[in-house]
What does this fold into?
Amino acid sequence: MSLRQNALTREIYYPESDGEPMAETDLHRDLMAELIEELEAFFRDTPEVYVSGNLLLYYEEGNPRKSVAPDVFVVRGVGKQRRRIYKLWEEGRAPEVVFEISSRKTLMQDTQKKWQLYARLGVREYYLYDPEYDYLPDGLAAFRLEGEEFVEVEVSEGVVRSEVLGLDLVDTGETLRLRDPQTGRFIPTREELIEAQQQAEAELARLREELARLRSQGPAD
It folds into this structure.
């Protein structure tokens, strides 16, 4: 590459925002955040698994108009460091799993433009979830890449297994949860972790009070 070409490459600006809101409603935003937090917690001790969402992913070098911002995505084979944008040609790895929290505004994009793009990029699993149960008949739809196209995977009684993540996706009828099939337990949300910690601290305080009370009574005759 010539010096002039290098200079032109350096001059290309890849924006960190597309000017669109993070999510259509609080419900959509909260679910996106919860899924990202749960996946980060699940893969915390697994090296080179990057979890993110609502981050601009640029997929054509030199063309800042070629970008997409998946609601939630997981990439294997790259570092966990924080990023401002994701350049596919620099990272060398496309997302293996993508979640889109679908809405009235995004449904057509999620099922057409993004559908085709994610298949072309090599996304192995693609999940659509409608938290309002208005636009997707069953709330949750799952697809796996076969060849160059997505094929729908059956969601049985609201549950589908992600082969890539090693997790069950569970549509509870109220929200989308991630479940560890080895333990049969949901990956806890941040609120659930805080509540569990508070309960543990309260139980510890109760035990300390009980121990202090027993000591104050002295030895039994």
